[in-house]
Amino acid sequence: MARTLKTIQTLSRFARVIATIVFVCSIIGAVGSAVGVVAIAVVDIMGIDLTAFSEILEITEPLNLDNEYYVEILALIYCIGEIIVSKAAISYFKSEIYAGTPFTHRGANEMRRLSVFAVVVPIAVSFAQSLAISVLSLFIENTQMVMSYEADISLGIFLLVLSVIFKYGAEITEQAPGAHGGI
Fold first, then answer.
1. Where are the domains of the chain?
2. pLDDT tens digits for 5-19?
3. What is the pLDDT of residue 182?
């Protein structure tokens, strides 16, 4: 059993690193998108001609700043959602690694919290993106934007089931003779 627990801890450390990378990349993406929105606004307000820029990048179609607004704002919303979920994942894995086992009451509660974020955040991101498209379409004419992000809640449901299993494991650990009990 100690070997299996060691494997779980190794996987948790690996998952914490991955969650941290996603967190950092999402922050970079959110900042980049926010800078992109400001840059597009400056180019639009100042009336800067981007024809030379398009030629340098060998873009055959002219840049449509209105579409770029959509893209940057939707990317910003998506990145904010990823920041929230990845931060919750980091919190869970730190807790699990500190406890040395996922079978603690605190670990089960952290997993349940992560499962809620994994369900609610994608739905909220999808809603916020739809709302952004609707609001922007009031101000930007002749622009077609199709949102392709789909809220997938299956991961959240899986994590919720896992949190119940972890809680059960914590209860069994507490009842075991000589056990220290779950944290």
1. 2-175
2. 899 999 999 999 999
3. 47
